[in-house]
Amino acid sequence: MSFEYSEYLIHRQWMMKALQLAKFAGDAGDIPVGAVIVNSQGELIAEGENRKERDCDPTAHAEIVALRRAAKRLQNWRLHECTLYVTLEPCPMCAGAIVQARIGILVYGVDDAKTGAVRTVANIPDSGASNHKLRVIGGILESSCRQQLQEWFANRRHSTT
Description:
This protein is α/β, with parallel strands linked by helices. It has a single domain (39-159), classed as 3-Layer(aba) Sandwich (Cytidine Deaminase, domain 2). The chain is 42% helix and 17% strand. The protein has helices at residues 5-27, 52-55, 62-74, 92-100, 142-159; strands at 34-38, 44-49, 83-88, 105-110, 135-138. The chain has a five-stranded mixed sheet with strand order 2-1-3-4-5. Helix 1 (5-27) packs parallel to helix 5 (142-159). It is globular, with a radius of gyration of 15 Å. 40% of the residues are buried.
């Protein structure tokens, strides 16, 4: 990873907050993904967790919820001085929204081998369709993020059999 240890500790702190939000989403019946947005001064601007099931909204991913809240709070859709932390690599919809919001830094926990659109399956931020250069840091608290998702899906499969 290309950053100082002190920066890693900050990323770890915010990812732990995102993991707490993900747990809340999972406990409420949604896939456990959490997101937080922090400004350049290190202040929490917005948070979100998956709400697709609760809101009956296919766009209510953690990242989208957090982006909407951050833009509303800052009264600006351009979030170029913000860092978005999310427990799972964003899907194509979320990666597109992150680019559109001009997020400064994206930090995510675990790769998504099925729909990851930042590094794993597709690379929307670095594609010709992107009009914004996004700094991406993956793998922060990767094992904790992976374990939370795996346990949630295992419990879900167990409860439906």
